[in-house]
């Protein structure tokens, strides 16, 4: 699609595109037609949309450039439809009630992206002799290009060529020339003018080309002539891109090489671009049609009118609906403004200028101009004569009353009000009303300043309507600036100057008094000062006694007025009484105080609080914002230090002196609640509780505990346990009693265990414990569950300590003190036996309690060694355990020591083990030697295990004695056994006989030197079983669980190092408990040892054990937990 602007020529190839190219968008093109005046006609264009993604754009034009979309109305309608089945757009143009000036050339253009198609067609309107077309000057004409211009003299018909005139004129004069010479298509003419200015290329086909442009009058005849270089070349004529065919309108002539085209009866439709083609070349020209001028047949007439009325100026011209311009004082009237008071009415040849609501500004010379003449006339707008129907009247108004001024005139006009020559503006108090011919001025609450001469002037008349308003004003005291009750507050010691506005005409006489005493205008401390519009009460250096009611009295001829003013002298308040400290905490206290006896005449706004240490003189402010209450909580004090506090009162005047200090006080904090409250035991009539001290005690220390309980009753409330209970902040719900608590211990106890006695069997109680110190009692620690007062039968279970599961060894003379815990409810019966016989309590002390039994031997003797059996019995339930106690002493000396042989520097000794081994295995011997001469003993070897030895490196020629000490775990024997004979080391020359040795047999069957012991393990934590053995050859070891060999199980790891055999059980569970056996065998025999492994319940068991809970209580808890789990399953 090509685009060009005003003043640009139409591209030359645009005409080619119109017809030379095949239609690329149109399926059906609109065709020309004829219609009679007053009838309707329709033009149809169709576009196929199969290859189009959106609707194409279609435009309808009349002539070359007038877009008909802006002309749609009652005589022209555009319509478009779309058929989905055939995918064809249909575009229709309806011309309704055609007129003669609708005739002419029309064009339809369709565009889609880069595609373009167009089609031209003619409309002939029958009714008078017309050519092919005639540009309209009516509803389908463009007439908005005429600009404002001054009135020119009536022109005579110029005898010049308009085309030549435009080519040689300034572009600024184009519109003027177009209006003067009747050019309607100025824009198209300018485009063609620009195109004709281009230099024409020399043509080989034409000997003479067309002139750049031709001009013809409407209805005239024009002749186009070209000369061909080759007369045989085919020649064709075109108009606006459409080929011209011979007809009565278009006549072709040939004269030699000349080719002539005649166009008869030229109309506006013939105003177009023409070109002729000869082979591949062409030449073009422009034809311009000039219409005859429009004459003014009846001129304008001078007219008179009144302001506000409608005025009309009319004239008649020679043509219907002709283009006419209106001027005011030589300036064109813009009729297209939205708010213009000027309107033009056209009735055929008659043109009427209408002026709505005329004013004096419309006085001017108005003129009308056509293309063939002009006319002018004067318009005079005057005011109508004005009559005063009701004048203003003088008024006398009392101050504060309403002023109402009213007048009536003969016309409905606006006007202005004046007071003493100044314009009156409306306000909330001053209101101006205008209704028809009546004008009002209303002033509410009249003032003294409202007095004066008032004037009303109707617009635009120069008439004055006057009156006089007089205001009378009785004396009055104005107390608007005072507060409620006319109270005036003054600070003691300052100066009061109270000025009260007064009014009255004539000025009133002023008198002040307090009580029966009149205040005179003198130099006294309290005096009155009077001025024309005010009176002033002055008090120098106000005192409290100056408070009271003062009276002011005004009097003049119009009356009198009296007012009372309450003078209030205020001061800082008195200091408050000494504060009281009613409660103290760890670093805080709560204090209160009474307000001061005298508030200084002003309400107390608040208080400041200060504190200091008792032994210090420095006070510290505690609040920087006033507190309005008489209670305060000082914080951030040091616990255990004595403090004092004091208070300041504050009112609007200032701050009082400080109060007396409070009595000294010491911040002390109660302790935190006791921890780990648990049930330690229950019988049919008592409950034993135990706990641990509080986590935080503080400077006040801990004096003791109070135990309270209450019975489970009918009034309970369910609440979420606080963090202080065992459940924690998100623990389970528990029943919490709401009854009163009973103190179990009348006197405070410092123990962490207490038994509550005298309880009824079968009842349920709640128990709580409080910690006490000098600051009071702490928050209670409540046991989360009710406790049933009933002794529960608990099977007996002996918790034998690990170190007693193997032989317990002590030396003679040492004390034996063994504590064996057990569990069992009710109180279990404990019995002891030694080697199957009852223990002799005269030698061995036995002490039993509810949870454990103690065997005590003050000085152990060897006779106390043996196997001790313990039996715990509850009703018919029994549990047994065995303890091996071994009391050891130093051994006796060997029985006999003999010198078996002597040779060279060697002596062979033999001996037998001692008769008394001290109740312990002999671990070795110490051999000593002594020279017979000196008998000084020297140790040859220590910790020797065999009962024979060869002593070497003896001195030849000496004689030796030998002695041997026995040794066990207690040490060497007290005595040694010496050889009865001596060993003589002979000198050289003596024949040495080599001794004969028998081979020693080192083989022996497997034997466990350290057995397995029964072990407790915690679920989830690795456990090990250890034992030691010896044997030669090295025995092979096998581990069994419950008599089943452990093989290829990744949870077990077995290893042996230096005779120590270890079985490691990785993260055992309760199912790993049982009897474990270690079996060793070699060629000489077999030996085995076994133990029991018990796995306790996981993290809970371990945590309770680490918290110090006795094992029997943990075992009972775990058993209940397992039973509860099994019942759930």
Automatic annotation (TrEMBL):
InterPro entries hit by this protein: FN3_dom (IPR003961), FN3_sf (IPR036116), Ig-like_dom (IPR007110), Ig-like_dom_sf (IPR036179), Ig-like_fold (IPR013783), Ig_I-set (IPR013098), Ig_sub (IPR003599), Ig_sub2 (IPR003598)
UniProt keyword annotations, A-Z: Actin-binding, Cell adhesion, Immunoglobulin domain, Muscle protein, Phosphoprotein, Repeat, Thick filament
GO molecular function: actin binding; myosin binding
Ranges for domain Fibronectin type-III: 575-674, 893-983
GO terms (BP aspect): cell adhesion
GO cellular component: a single term: myosin filament
Coiled-coil segments on the chain, per record: none
Residue ranges of domain Ig-like in the record: 292-380, 475-566, 1005-1094
Pfam families the record matches: fn3 (PF00041), I-set (PF07679), THB (PF18362)
Keyword Repeat included in the entry's annotation: yes
PANTHER family documented for this protein: MYOSIN-BINDING PROTEIN C, SLOW-TYPE, TITIN
Family stated for the protein in its record: Belongs to the immunoglobulin superfamily. MyBP family.
Function as written in the Swiss-Prot or TrEMBL entry: Thick filament-associated protein located in the crossbridge region of vertebrate striated muscle a bands. Slow skeletal protein that binds to both myosin and actin. In vitro, binds to native thin filaments and modifies the activity of actin-activated myosin ATPase. May modulate muscle contraction or may play a more structural role.
Subunit structure: Interacts with USP25 (isoform USP25m only); the interaction prevents proteasomal degradation of MYBPC1.
Name of the featured protein: Myosin-binding protein C, slow-type
Organism of this sequence: Sphenodon punctatus
